[in-house]
Design a protein that fits this description.
The chain folds into 2 domains: 324 residues, DD-peptidase/beta-lactamase superfamily (Beta-lactamase), CATH 3.40.710; 74 residues. 23% of the residues lie in helices and 23% in strands. It contains 10 helices and 20 strands. A hairpin with an 8-residue loop joins β15 and β16. The termini are far apart. The relative contact order is 0.13. Keywords: Hydrolase.
Length: 439
Amino acid sequence: MPSVEPTTARALLARTARVQATGRAPGLVAGVVRDGALAWSAGRGDVPGPHTDVQYRLGSISKTVTAVAVMRLRDEGRLHLDDPLEEHVPGTPLGARTVGQLLSHLAGASSESPGGWWERVPGGSLADLQLGPEHVVLGAARRFHYSNLGFGLLGELVARHRGQPWVDVVTREVLAPLGMVRTTARPSGMAARGTAVHPWADVVLPEPEHDAGVMDAAGQLWATLADLGRFAAFLLGDTGDVLAPATLAEMVVPAGVDGSAAGWSAYGLGVQVLRVDGTTLVGHGGSMPGFLAGVFVDRTELTGAVMLANTTSGLDPLVPGLLADLKAAEPRVVPAWTPAPPPVPLDVLGVWFWGPAPHVLRAQGDGALHLGPLPGRAGRASRFVRRSDGSWVGLDGYYAGETLRIADDHLDLATFVFTRQPYDPAAPVPGGVDPVGWR
């Protein structure tokens, strides 16, 4: 089992204890993940039984599980992210919005489902919602607008494609393969009671708990700390047979930016992406009446942190702090560099000019190419990976998704031609080169 140093454990425990005490959470469990498992964990307050095996409600972390099920359908060719919802769940006012827009909260769907507060009252079917035009509140792809309703519709999409209820699908396709056997739709076995804490006194009030029906996909799941730690390992890349690593990498690319956040905050495909003190964290937070939860990972440090508590509100952020403590005390030791054959001939690498601007094409040890400006110069940079036809496709930066073709005397990239000399007249420079030349 992975572990942390005693001084690290002390720092993690001190932070966890402080958050539980100052936030007045009746019970709180937390842990850090490294090498595929919990490396440290603790319970504070009223935590029945082994603290890693007590269920708490995950809230919106359920959305990421839903997104994994949707992406599995995409990878099977059953749908495309650009498909209108109408092709899969006909008859809703959001039929023209795409699956990808719903996954990234860019569909303009209302934040909540109609009727009573869905998190505190029993739910029904999609038909029971009686959706109307008023539940489309923004234009498509105009701005990030968090929508629980949107994920309810995605859960319905999953259920209709598989011919089974959403919870049966995600249990069979996501939770069981990952070994998350203590993650269920309703509390089972040892489970914390959801509570609200009075703002002015140290007394608590039980919160109700119901099946949310069609809104299950937005926040229904319950899980233990051990299971949530396994999900953190999944987000770090231990995807097993559930999802291709390339699909997970696609999910964590920011699509919509949350302009209301205090810091840099964005959303990928069912995944929150946060920039905290120069570090990018990927995962999701969760809240339901009576519960708060969080799972975030640092995919550069290969570490994660998880937290579950049975309180409705009032906790200071804990997960980013645990990750910062772990990184400060026990930073990752990267693998040693070793020589590797380049994916292209050596004479292709080196300096190329976009007009008069010098860029460098470098080979990376992972088989990718990197094209970017000389150090100290401003400009566009992207990584590229080889396609089966011999061309290269951009992974990130300005040229993400664009095709790079390598010729003997030039690079062809998104209509731009890079040459060995600035505006080389022997290369096919768009618009030609003045015949008199430099003067």
